[in-house]
């Protein structure tokens, strides 16, 4: 079962590592879109979110304080869903649908990250091979 849990963590978190690296590699393009979405300090926000996504994803994959990494990813996804995928402000039907899909993808992945957080942060839980113990040891 440990192998399956590790594979699940890798499959879940790989998108955050690649997206985070993409944010860092394409800062100007990403900052342009962030400006369009009225993100304050767009370039800085892209750099910070890219670093947090990449590090959070690696944390989950490697099991280095995976509880903290999962919590960071969950918070990022929730904030990004609200700020970047504001389907409720769209007037064009196609844009509204696209933003709604992205919004709910982010929200559902935030839910998955919270599940990983809950499992990793629970005292005595086994969620596959890890490099470190969890940061938190919450009672069952």
UniProtKB/TrEMBL annotation:
Tell me what topology the record assigns in the membrane.
Answer: Multi-pass membrane protein
List GO terms (cellular component aspect): membrane
- Keywords annotated in UniProt: Membrane, Transmembrane, Transmembrane helix
Q: Could you list the residue ranges that cross the membrane?
A: 6-24, 68-88, 100-121
Protein species of origin: freshwater metagenome
Question: Where in or outside the cell is it found?
Answer: Membrane
**InterPro entries noted in UniProt:** DoxX
Organism lineage reads as:
unclassified sequences, metagenomes, ecological metagenomes
Q: Which residues form a coiled coil?
A: none
Please give one Pfam family short name.
DoxX
Protein's recorded name: Unannotated protein
